[in-house]
Design goal:
Length: about 450
């Protein structure tokens, strides 16, 4: 997310840190680079102008100029201003005193409303809610069917009446949710390729009929200022409660995240960071600011681990690790749990300092897929006792996994190195063994 902006900001900060002493001139020169980087990321011009003016005012203060580490002080000022620009605090969804809580999604066609509806339902279910999806987009071809397929995949109920009246569908869904003991309903409303009066009128009628507790505007984060301008119009006509930015795993024109809160006055509540139903995150301004500045986001990484890692399996694994009984079945199980947390690139960039080291390097997740295919091509006996893997068995495994014998040999060499490392930990009394890379305990 915003990798290009991160690299350009880091370049400006590197120059600042390189100065033995800061003065108004070299600060102004560095801020010009920061200004250019923000504009190239498609951040709103007025937002950039105000942002740079505020940073400059604070950066030329005596506390900074006389500081032992003035470069670091300016990085902190930029970080704090980014947090302020993004909204300071994490905005929570409202909850109804008497269920169901009604959440209405709105936005243009193609912004990702239907997919986000499923992601939000999945997210809410993980936090103990029982959601129902409502197919109120009766105009886009296959929109209802798409939502039903997503619902089936997640085992979440979907209410639909086919090509009926969206206002009546939304209202009837309230009774249906109570009959199925659902405490939250998510209305997937129709969009258009552009704003028109009919669309806005229908949204207003749905709002008046069902009185949603939360209206979320869903915007395509890759459309930059177009998303900001559309959000501004929706805010004026519909007065929504919060923003969702989808497709933020891409880097093109991602500056919408830095503009939309300032322009609309509405908080960003969620961001979509991938295509899977798990790929949605609560928007934390401080964490996003840290990511943009290449400082990582360890808190979100830990939360992803806690959400995905099976505690019971982790405890069993820790016992095996302490006894150095780690086998390929354990390796495969841990690999699958890591995959659930997201792409390797996104996980690595949450670790402080790693983003700078990676630069423009692309992390290919296909390596994990290849390893998984190799282990899946083994018999249970081979996974539990890799020592029996002779030449003919390795040839069969390579053929079955669509890989080369060299790939199988490379995996086995890496696995043996890991086993040796585990024995060294065991010899030192097992201290720290529960925190091995694949342990997560």
């Amino acid at each position: 997310m915003l990798e290009d902006l991160t690299q350009k900001l880091e370049s400006a900060f590197r120059k600042l840190r390189g100065y033995g002493k800061l003065n108004e001139k070299n600060i102004a020169d560095s801020l010009k680079e920061i200004r250019r980087a923000l504009l190239e990321a498609d951040v709103n011009y007025k937002v950039v102008k105000d942002f740079i003016a505020t940073v400059q005012e604070k950066a030329v203060g005596e506390d900074v100029l006389r500081s032992v580490t003035p470069g670091q002080m300016i990085v902190k000022i930029v970080h704090d201003e980014l947090v302020r620009l993004l909204g300071n605090t994490t905005a929570q969804l409202k909850t109804a005193g008497i269920p169901p809580t009604i959440i209405m999604l709105c936005g243009l066609q193609g912004s990702g409303k239907t997919t986000f509806a499923a992601k939000l339902a999945n997210h809410l279910r993980k936090s103990g809610r029982k959601p129902m999806l409502v197919a109120a987009d009766v105009y886009r071809p296959a929109a209802v069917e798409q939502l039903k397929i997503l619902g089936r995949g997640l085992n979440i109920p979907v209410y639909d009446e086919g090509a009926g009246d969206p206002v009546k569908i939304a209202f009837n869904a309230i009774s249906a949710s109570r009959n199925q003991f659902c405490d939250t309903i998510i209305l997937d409303t129709a969009g258009r390729l552009h704003i028109d009066e009919n669309m806005m009128d229908e949204r207003a009628r749905i709002k008046a009929r069902v009185r949603p507790h939360e209206i979320l505007f869903v915007a395509d984060g890759m459309t930059g200022q177009d998303a900001v301008n559309t959000a501004k119009e929706f805010a004026e006509k519909l007065d929504f409660d919060g923003v969702v930015l989808t497709k933020m795993d891409g880097d093109a024109r991602g500056g919408a995240a830095l503009s939309i809160r300032s322009v609309t006055g509405k908080p960003i509540k969620f961001i979509g960071v991938g295509e899977k139903t798990e790929d949605v995150e609560i928007f934390h301004p401080d964490r996003i600011a840290s990511r943009i500045l290449g400082m990582g986001d360890v808190v979100s990484l830990v939360e992803k681990a806690q959400e995905t890692i099976d505690k019971e399996k982790a405890e069993k694994l820790e016992k095996k690790l302490k006894k150095a009984e780690f086998d390929l079945e354990d390796f495969l199980d841990q690999l699958q749990q890591i995959k659930k947390m997201g792409s390797l690139e996104s996980l690595l960039k949450m670790i402080p300092g790693v983003s700078k080291q990676l630069g423009n390097a692309q992390i290919d997740d296909r390596g994990l897929v290849r390893v998984e295919a190799i282990i899946n091509s083994m018999t249970r006996e081979e996974r539990r006792n890799p020592r029996i893997l002779n030449g003919s068995r390795r040839k069969r495994i390579a053929s079955g996994s669509g890989t080369r014998v060299q790939d199988v040999n490379q995996l086995m060499n890496q696995f043996q190195q890991m086993k040796k490392m585990l024995k060294q930990f065991k010899g030192k009394g097992g201290r720290g063994i529960g925190r091995m890379p694949f342990g997560f305990a």
